[in-house]
User: Which sequence fits this backbone?
């Protein structure tokens, strides 16, 4: 019974020291804690049989703890690897998308350059025929200016006629009033 009491007294201290250690501590730290606990248990003065059972319990506890820690580390490494794999796949997809956009842009650039060359060639051809075109354009612009001036004159005459028409309507209305008063 005294061995169980001493065992119970030692256990909270060990748990506290285990909880103080970081979860990513190395196996060397856990082994040193195991040896520390074993030395405490052997110095407690208990019998050899209880020492063997507590040693077995302690060793099984620490081996289970080590297994859990190693499993946790493996899981973290796998998730990190998966993250890197996802990041790689995402970067690869982005690169493919950008490459396709670049190809499209290059094709558009080639098409625009061809159009520019065609336009420059046509402009050169117009320069050869330009003197004839200038003469015809001058004639057309002169005839258009003449038509515009004729139309402006017609608008002025039309405005004068409207004013004359309004004046005559007013006179006609006045004469009608005078006649109606005289006929009464």
Assistant:
């Amino acid at each position: 019974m005294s061995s169980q009491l001493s065992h119970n007294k030692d256990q909270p201290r060990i748990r506290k020291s285990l909880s103080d250690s970081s979860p990513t501590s190395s196996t060397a730290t856990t082994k040193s804690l195991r040896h520390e606990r074993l030395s405490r248990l052997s110095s407690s003065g208990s019998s050899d049989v209880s020492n063997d059972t507590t040693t077995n319990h302690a060793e099984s506890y620490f081996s289970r703890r080590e297994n859990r820690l190693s499993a946790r580390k493996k899981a973290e490494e796998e998730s990190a690897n998966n993250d890197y794999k996802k990041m790689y796949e995402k970067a690869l997809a982005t690169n493919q998308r950008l490459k396709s956009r670049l190809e499209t842009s290059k094709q558009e650039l080639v098409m625009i350059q061809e159009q520019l060359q065609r336009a420059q060639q046509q402009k050169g051809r117009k320069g050869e025929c330009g003197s004839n075109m200038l003469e015809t354009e001058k004639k057309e612009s002169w005839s258009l200016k003449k038509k515009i001036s004729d139309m402006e004159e017609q608008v002025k005459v039309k405005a004068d006629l409207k004013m004359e028409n309004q004046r005559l309507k007013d006179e006609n209305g006045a004469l009608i009033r005078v006649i109606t008063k005289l006929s009464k």
